[in-house]
Every structure is written in structure tokens, then in C-alpha cells.
Amino acid sequence: MVLIATADDSFRTFLEYTVKSKGLVVAGVSDGETLAKRLETMAPDLLVLESRIPGVETQTLCERLRLAPQTRSMSIIAIAAEGDEASRQELLESGAHQYLSRPFSPEILMTSIGAIWHDANRDPALGLRELLTFLDLELEVSSYRVRRNGRTIHLAPTEFRLLHHLMKNPHRVYSRDELREAAWLRAVHVGPRTIDVHIGRLRAALNAAGGKGLIRTVWSVGYALSE
């Protein structure tokens, strides 16, 4: 299910037509009140969110969706309203997985959706090693599940990819560039601050399940999974 939120009716119609033409189920909203009601009654797989919606502080919404258990695994594509390209970095840091600037072609939109869902469904190559473990932490690649001390941890797709990469080689220190290549599409530009924010979210999620901190910061170098 794809939920599209834009203030521009003609633009939303274009997006809905593009997504529906690929056989996907789509719903559309044009204001903050309707968007809030939809999110209360449904859990879309993907939210396509324009950066300027009446009644919505987009950055705050992305942060809230990342924190709520029922929506933290939902993917978000943020779209810059015309003249609002400066919001890109803030939205990526707040939890959006991709960012598109108008104008863009239908092919660009569907490529972005396909890439996100490809990651969410896991690349079959990752399934060669289905269960990764480190101390009291378990990650099941095929079922997209993380547990610590037997407690399930709900992670957003970016945090899951970061943890998966760290767990493949515990104790190894990964640079921010290496983590960016592992967790983000190459077409998406993210800075060091964005990587730090997502590592912080991953660390908080792991710590909430109890036990000692498992992500070690190596200043000026990067991060490692370590006791």
C-alpha cells in the first residue's frame, strides 16, 4: 500500500496514476488532518510525502513515524515542494529514506520505489547467511527480524541495513563512507551527520532491549560492533 501526500492536486493525480499503472494499491491525501487520520487507520508500506503540506511539519512527522512501533518500518520518500530543495538534509536526517526534487520523470519515481522495496524484501544474495549472531544479539536476514536477549527489536530499513553490515564483521571498524555505501542507494547523497544520526537511532534501539552498549565509536574513523 502506497500513501501519497501532496498539496498539489494535479501533481498528486500524476503520482497516483504512475504508481497505480504498476499494479500497486494507492491512496492520496492533500492536507495534514486527512494524513493524520489515514495514518491512524492504516499502516502503508510506503509514504510519498511532499515537503510542504498544509498542517504538517514534515521533519517532525518523519521523526515521529520513525519512533512509533507501528510505523517505524514504513519507508518514506520525501519530495521537495518547488522552491524547497533546502529541506533535503533535514528530512533525510529525520528518517526519510530517499529524497526527490521536482521535476522528475515517472521512471525516476518507480526506480526509487523499486529500490526501497528491494531492500525491504532483502536481496536473495543476503540470504546465504540467514542468521547472524553477536553475543546476545540475533539478526535474521530472511525474515527481517532482530532480537536481543530474546526481545524483538523493531528497526527501520536504514538501521537494519547498518546493523546487518556491522554484524557481518564484528569488531571491525567501518568508516562512514563504508556505512553509507552499505545502507543507502548510491544516488542518494548523505553526509556524515546523517550517518551519525542513524547510528544513534540504532544504538538507542539496541540499548532499549537491555544489556551493555554494542556499538563502539572510534573518533575520526567510524563505528564498530563491539562489547
Q: What this model shows, in words?
A:
With 227 residues, this protein is α/β, with parallel strands linked by helices. Helix content is 41%, strand content 21%. The chain has 8 helices and 12 strands. It has a 5-stranded parallel beta sheet with strand order 2-1-3-4-5, with helices on both faces. Strands 6-7-8-9 form a 4-stranded antiparallel beta sheet, with helices on one face. β1 (2-5), α1 (9-20) and β2 (26-29) form a beta-alpha-beta unit. The protein is globular. The chain starts with a strand and ends with a strand. Residues 122-129 have low confidence and may be disordered.
Q: Supply the helix-strand structural class.
A: alpha/beta
Q: Poorly predicted ranges (pLDDT <50, ≥5 residues)?
A: 122-129
Record field, number of beta strands? 12
Largest sheet at a glance?
5 strands, parallel
> Looking at the structure, what is the overall shape?
globular
Report the span from N to C terminus: 40 Å
Oligomeric state: single chain
> Count of helices?
8
Helical content stands at 40-55%
Sketch the topology as an H/E string, one letter per element: EHEHEHEHEHEEEEHEHHEE
